[in-house]
Here is the input.
Amino acid sequence: MSNPNQGLSNIKGVSDEDQQMIQNIEAMMGPEPEDMGFIKNVFWGRFREDLLFPYPEEGQQERERCDELLEELEDYLENGHPRVEIDREQYIPQDVIDRLFDMGVMGMIIPEEYGGLGLGVTSYNRVLEMIGRYCASTAVMVSAHQSIGCKALVMFGSDDQKEEYLPMVAREKLSAFCLSEPNVGSDAAAQESFSVKTEDGDYILNGEKKWSTSGAFSGLLTVMCKNMVPDPETGELEQQGVNALIVTPDMDGVEVFENNRAKTGIRGTWQARFRFNDVRVPQENLLHKEGGGLKVALSCLNYGRCTLSAGVTGAAKQAMEQGIKWAQTRYQFERPLADFELVQQKIARMSAVTYAMDAMLYMMTGMLDRGDKDIMVETAMTKVFCSQFGWEVIDEVMQVMGGEGYMTEHEVERAWRDNRIHSIVEGSNEVMQSFIFAYGGKQLAEQMVSVQEALLWDTDESIGDNLSRIVTAATNPTVMSKALPLAGQLFLGLKPSAPEIRNVHPAVRDHADRLAKLVQKHSHYFKLVSKWEREEVVKHQAQQARVANNAIYLYALSTSLSKMDDQLRTGEFGPQFERDRAAFEYLFDWFENEIHRNFGEMRTNADESMREAAEAARSYNDTLPNDDYYIHEGSPLGRDAGKTPPSEHIQQFDGEGQDPREVNRAPGETDELDVEEIAEEATPRGGDGAPEEAAPPSEEEES
Here is the structure.
């Protein structure tokens, strides 16, 4: 039988390009945790109650400390924070940053021994939600500083690194995270920035970075780059993983050639572009371990996706309250707007999704606080759900408020502009949907592939090899124990029984039973889609999105069930609770219909004509001259391809370094560094001058 743990890149019939993409993603994601998280179990048709119930809560002392901070912060945000000026002038004043440092907001996640508050993930996100209600620019700055900027140092730094840098970023200076590049967005494994280790152990860093929030005035940079190591035999540089390096702006060769760019929203934040020219980074500034930087990056992004969700959740709640108040008090045809059913539908949906956003967000922070290992799919789902529905809530409020909502003074249009970015950053929602599909069902898909390759006829093999393989597999009890139930589901419609959700309050027992049946069907339809699409599913992302969206809906319902169960058990009552309970009821009815609609479209859809229409539109577009349109600087056509963007009426934020685009210098091209000389110096040699044979890795290194 085929290896049951084989990667998805081994599926036959997949194009070379798609196989390479899958291999890069699998290498980037690393090994699967031993214990599957909640959503991966859902793909198998299981419901792990122990991972969701009871709804997580922080300790009383922790909550009281956070409440004190929130009280001080809310007073400042309401009465002293210049949110309108920040948006209008496109900067966050230094006195605002200093005030946040003084309150401890900028050091919330940093341990107390280094000058921070040492708060947990849940408290940190409560603060980000509060800031998000008032000013998304400030929320993004605070989040970028702690969730990704210095979080790597908190999680992976050595004692010496923490002692040297954490007090500074807890009390004085901002930090930035340098991952994205001109040619690298979601494809993090394709970085062009690189480092080469010298004979004395230091690293020489070269390359470019963009979109580094607060980078122009940060005191600490966490830079991700390819780890280039000379081959012991040939001396040629080859990549061995990714490095995470601590870089400070005073190091020779660090250039900020663009401090910021004018943006649609979050205008107060500044995103820098860096050029690293032969920067010598001391060996003691390596984070985690050589070649292990992707673990650093992915761990930080888990936290970044939560705090992003917290900011937009706060903005959506604030907008919803404003929108409902407007609908209640704005009269047309001698009655309030809220009397009209289509407005009521908007109000109900806003109430339902903000309830779910809150439930998902603080379930996620609870999982992080207690140290759950397999949560990457859940963080992706939280990010997709909150960024999509949070912005839609704000958009609906603008619709309810009509022309007045479009006016600047009511602040809704600023929230509308500010929060549009969240479905783009921290992994675009389209990429996240494919990720949720692939990694939510990865282990199940790999088992299905292994069974298929063991028992089905392979036209690339001889008759004898086929018969030998199939007979051997068919007489193997382990193979057949997996193959027979799978065949019964795919060809006879025999589904396993629905999971049981036992420990819920009697008032939501019916909802739990409905949810269990949806989990059963979700697992079944994932298998059916895999059967219908076979290897084509790798590129049919519209199908992937339907499966992923259903999984997201199931996670929203599951976390909402846990939250409502907790509210019932603690005896909540009053208008706010009644609002929550009605929102919960509607959420179940609404999303249950959406899930069934997606089930139907998995079988009958317009995907084929969609692909044909897209191809025809692309073919026509190829006839249009490139010079009339904007072309991405990372295009194979070159950095100067396409129309030049206008700049005369747009505020510019030039830095001090030379813009490499002006000399058409490639992102990975060095300035003065002789890479071959560095590689030769770094190549280990024996006494006879020949390269030494590489030592085999230890058991610890292999693990």
